[in-house]
Amino acid sequence: MSFLDVKDLRIHFPTDDGLVRAVDGLTFSLERGQTLGIVGESGSGKSVTSLGILGLHKGGRAKISGEIWLDGEELVGASAEAVRGLRGKKMAMIFQDPLSSMHPYYTVGHQIIEAYRIHHDVSKQVARKHAVDLLGRVGIPEPAKRVDSYPHEFSGGMRQRAMIAMALSCDPELLIADEPTTALDVTVQAQILDLMRDLQREFNSALIVITHDLGVVAELSDDILVMYGGKCIEYGKADDIFYQPEHPYTWGLLSSMPRLDRERTERLLPIKGSPPSLINVPPGCAFHPRCPYADRTDGRSSTEVPDLAPTERGHLVRCHMGRTERRTLWETEIKPVLETQ
Amino acid sequence: MSENEPLLSVQNLEKHFPVTKGLLKREVGAVKAVDGISFDVFKGETLGLVGESGCGKSTTGRLVTRLLEPTGGKVVFEGRDITHMGQGKLRPLRRDMQMIFQDPYSSLNPRHTVGAIVGAPFRIQGVKTENGTKKAVQDILEMVGLNPEHYNRYPHEFSGGQRQRIGIARTLALKPKLIIADEPVSALDVSIQAQVVNLLEDLQNELDLTYVVIAHDLSVVRHISDRVAVMYLGKIVEIADRKRLYTAPMHPYTNALLSAVPVPDPKARRDRDRIRLTGDVPSPLNPPPACRFHTRCWKAQEICKTVEPPLEELAGGHRVACHFPENAPVAATAEDATKA
């Protein structure tokens, strides 16, 4: 069993307009020291997944089923108190926007100390020293002084560093970062990505990075899981997803983005249509209305949900097309276009 | 207007926002959002304006379209100085100069139908069309890839990408000459971004449009622009044609920006040697003296802290404001001077 094992996780929200299947049968695993990148567009269910693992849907209207095993403990069936004991200590989260996820009324130090003292029986002085150490560790200059600053006194990059310090305060073994650099400028983003990589190496924690940015994913991930309409549509080693992808949606993502590391193309190749709303996911393969190859499946694409099946390289793909057909398409149609880019 | 005259010419443009204190609103300083920038935009081309947050790129867009009042310098549109033109005189000009906004959620009135939104320019400018406004609006909707039958729908019935198309349709209504697009695709999903970028390019070819595209995403800017200007703390630090800027950037800041972009290629990241800038962009309230980049620059020397480098043309059409430019032609640069 892996350090983190998620099995057939489903998070559904009943609403007046119908059932929203935000996460619909997600299975993955992660070891200590490894990074999993979860990629998807808005409304693909990637953030709901992360909140689900942390148990933040508990007590809400969400209907959660499946299993989440963290280091031998099952979390879906566990009580809210039991999960609260783990949250912050064993697993922690770095949110996208540190300005709205930190309390504006308390100093940065106060918020780190609070989290630390919930899980550790230490005096305020000891906790404060720990907070100063952490702020220094994440690269905040003059940590002994900045520990008493309020979040608004920090710049965006500094705030994200403080956020990371807070998440690290109890040495969590599982760290979930939801769009950790989306709100940041590109030069600051590079600093934060480096920092996250270094800290992960130091703490040997398991890291889940959730983002829409394939560049960020490529920077950090060992494994990549691509989500679409609440389901995993492709899951495997980073190199396989980037160099041997087999799902038409992954192909579309890769070919629709302009890339600085390739020659400029005259034209971008977008995916037609727009991502589905989770309340109205198309029947069959959720991607079929946008898929250029949907006509190759004898009509099954709109009636039958394809299985998540392994390829010969061992990564998982949810597509009706046969393996050989996908390989041929990739080699003859997609890869040549991507590589001239 | 002759062929070689720029459609839009910006000269030493400045916008200082006063910072006031106390009851009497005493001025204690100024945020120098845009601090003396100059550039030309020629007919049919796309100029990209890139930089990090707070560099003044959006302010520049708003100054050019006169949504903000410049505190110094000049904006010349089609040979006419519009810097301080009154609203009455400006209105007919607004037909020729339009803006696309970043957020397709907040830039469309939720209580107006698509027909009313896209038809508003006709109404405001008092333009009569041959077959009525409705027909004209439907033609435009079709042109931007929307269903003309959706004339009576409201913005909330559309997805983000479609909303951005509505915004684009509105700017196109009166066939403008110049379009300022402020982060036109950054709020959109990856797969939708490409659709909108392609649409902007098609429209440019079809309607002979001139664009100024303001964006922070360097790969989008490279794709869409003919020339690119890089801004840092209210100044243009480098301006060149696309190819030159991306293959042989001269300003250390441009280099650092390009090198910081995460590349969607796991192998490349392992091999890549990267420039890492330390710290954040300083506050525009109190920018560093002389070269504003010297606090983060690894090449900075004494002169950078005392003398502001002018924006000089070092190669054909490639202007850069740096004492120690990289990739510079072997001419007498300051670097050679200090070595000698």
Automatic annotation (TrEMBL), chain A:
Localization in the cell: Cell membrane
InterPro entries: AAA+_ATPase (IPR003593), ABC_Ni/Peptide_Import (IPR050388), ABC_transporter-like_ATP-bd (IPR003439), ABC_transporter-like_CS (IPR017871), Oligopep_ABC_C (IPR013563), P-loop_NTPase (IPR027417)
Gene Ontology CC terms, in alphabetical order: plasma membrane
Membrane topology: Peripheral membrane protein
Keyword terms, alphabetized: ATP-binding, Cell membrane, Membrane, Nucleotide-binding, Transport
Database matches in CDD domains: ABC_NikE_OppD_transporters
Alphabetical list of Gene3D superfamilies matching this protein: P-loop containing nucleotide triphosphate hydrolases
GO biological process: peptide transport
Residues annotated as domain ABC transporter: 4-254
GO MF annotation: an example: ATP binding
Bilayer-crossing regions: none
Main location: membrane
Family, per entry: Belongs to the ABC transporter superfamily.
Protein's name according to its UniProt entry: Dipeptide/oligopeptide/nickel ABC transporter ATP-binding protein
Species this chain originates from: Nonomuraea glycinis
UniProtKB/TrEMBL annotation, chain B:
Species for this entry: Nonomuraea glycinis
Top-level taxonomy: Bacteria, Bacillati, Actinomycetota, Actinomycetes, Streptosporangiales
Domain of life of the organism encoding this protein: Bacteria
Keyword ATP-binding included in the entry's annotation: yes
UniProt GO BP: peptide transport; transmembrane transport
Keyword Nucleotide-binding: yes
Family: Belongs to the ABC transporter superfamily.
Protein's name in the database: ABC transporter domain-containing protein
PROSITE patterns: ABC_TRANSPORTER_1 (PS00211), ABC_TRANSPORTER_2 (PS50893)
Listed InterPro entries: AAA+_ATPase, ABC_transp_ATP-bind, ABC_transporter-like_ATP-bd, ABC_transporter-like_CS, Oligopep_ABC_C, P-loop_NTPase
Gene3D superfamilies: P-loop containing nucleotide triphosphate hydrolases
GO molecular function: ATP binding; ATP hydrolysis activity
Keywords carried by this UniProt record: ATP-binding, Nucleotide-binding, Transport
One Pfam family from the record: oligo_HPY
Domain ABC transporter, chain residue ranges per copy: 8-258
